[in-house]
Write a structure and sequence with these properties.
Layout lengths: L1 E5 L2 E3 L5 E8 L8 E6 L6 E6 L16 E6 L4 E6 L8 E7 L9 E5 L2
Amino acid sequence: VHIVESGGGLVQPGGSLRLSCVASGFTFSEVTMNWFRQSPGKEREFVAAISGSGDFTPYTDSVRGRFTISRDNAKNTIYLQMNSLTPKDTAVYYCQYSGTTHWGQGTQVTVSS
């Protein structure tokens, strides 16, 4: 299993970023994938998930309405579109094969003026 996130960076408050996560080594279209994030000094927290078909997409309350998770099974990729970013969204964002210990290395998102 191999999972790689990308798309992080520095953005001003109110801005947008789109994260990508490419996975391989398993039947991608059949599994739920998750986005988590971890800020300095805090525990890793759940952000959003997407079922294999894309029909089920739960979000944590703090991002609902601002973030959108999606997937392209033909590309073995999930995305996290993040809009209206605030400094509280600053974290390392991780992609996870749901229910397993398979994680990517993370991508840093920094929201600052």
